[in-house]
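Deviation from plan, reported transparently: nicotinamide-adenine-dinucleotide complex.
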Amino acid sequence: MREKIDIKRPEGKLGVLIPGLGAVATTFIAGVLLARKGLGKPFGSLTQMGTIRLGKRTEKRVPRIRDFVELAELDDLIFAGWDIFPDNAYEAALKAGVLSKEHLEPVRDELAGIKPMPAVFDRNYVKKLDGPNKKTGANKYELALQLMDDIRKFKEENSLDRLVMVWCASTEIYLRPDPVHETVESLEKAMKENHPAIAPSMIYAYAAIKSGLPFINGAPNLTVDIPAMVQLAWNHNVPIAGKDFKTGQTLMKTIIAPGLKARLLGLNGWFSTNILGNRDGEVLDDPESFKTKEESKLGALEYILQPEVYPELYGKFYHKVRINYYPPRGDNKEGWDNIDIFGWLGYPMQIKIDFLCRDSILAAPIVLDLVLFMDLAWRAGLRGIQEWLSFYFKTPMCAPELYPEHDLFIQLMKLKNTLRYMKGEELITHLGLEYYD
Ligand SMILES: NC(=O)c1ccc[n+]([C@@H]2O[C@H](COP(=O)([O-])OP(=O)(O)OC[C@H]3O[C@@H](n4cnc5c(N)ncnc54)[C@H](O)[C@@H]3O)[C@@H](O)[C@H]2O)c1
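Because the crystal trials were delayed, the predicted structure below was used instead.
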């Protein structure tokens, strides 16, 4: 056995603070409440259903992940959030239309008790939305102080020692890294001067990190993916992770593309289009928000296929991603992929995927796992970017000198090896020669 990392035990309750009580957030909260009562199963969640192999295959040690590492129990999660709409989580869940009214009924009272705090919101960053439940303040720094006050009150009122913040609010307009994002000092100065390079999501992240909370970015927004936030997280011993939950079409891409590359099948083009009709789809109907999402969705193939290493196979593929807002479908997205590949002697072939998925059903277990793993990371003293959680993101954050790892299977190996590392178990290399000695 290697040396273990000292991990504090998950004692007491864990507060989960969520900017954005929309489809993803309410599906996640309702699902946790239903699972607690034994009225639903947390399918799709590694922390609840996944296992991890330890030692040699002959040892047959395959505990559940939740029995292997000390994670907070579902019973110990307490939720709160912010939204520009004053609907409580029950009303918001009904409007989101992901879970049926009958399904929500047994947890109605608990959901109705979650009332959104007034949000930090600015229409310049989400053009398609506006709502009445907003904070006002002299500048962006002052708004951050108000959020920190919300965090402190929630913590005190519920006697919490640990909290995690997870951004489930809308996709903001595309922002490029700006010189004010370079250092903590320049970031704070920019907040005080209401600089346009500071988006609302950054104000939440700043408040979270300054309050010592791990921060997870579920949207493709820049938010914590800037040097100043990484430094701030490091200074406050806080783990951060992002960005953009990997669900639907990108999940499929990162499952299929590693397989094509493994078999050295070439790619001429990959056309992805989808229709969705939820509020997320409406926000993404704005070209500036779509640009943020598009950037996030386009990266995966380039990194997995490595055109510079395999120019004959992947040097010239055409990649297109479209998102179409189509209200009749609600949260039940349909995504089509047409993949033009080629094999032996260059003969062309095609793959068609028609994925009738449910966006928030795919996102909810990701939120749960990230909340529990980020709390674990915090208790284990890990700080800054948590690259081992890349598995959950469309655009995984990583150190500036690295490229992100997008291959779902490498990501899973990295995640499980990190858990083994934390617990002092041997890392698994899949070499296996020792079985034949
Ligand atoms: N499968 C998925 O659904 C999926 C996958 C990856 C990423 N995401 C991202 O997760 C986010 C949430 O998706 P959703 O489907 O729940 O969207 P949604 O529109 O149903 O919910 C977002 C909520 O955020 C609120 N909001 C917007 N700006 C806010 C602010 N500044 N402060 C507080 N609240 C704010 C909105 O009023 C809305 O209620 C989006 O950014 C989306 O792109 C979703």
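The first strand starts at residue 14 and ends at 19. We consider this an acceptable substitute for the interim report.
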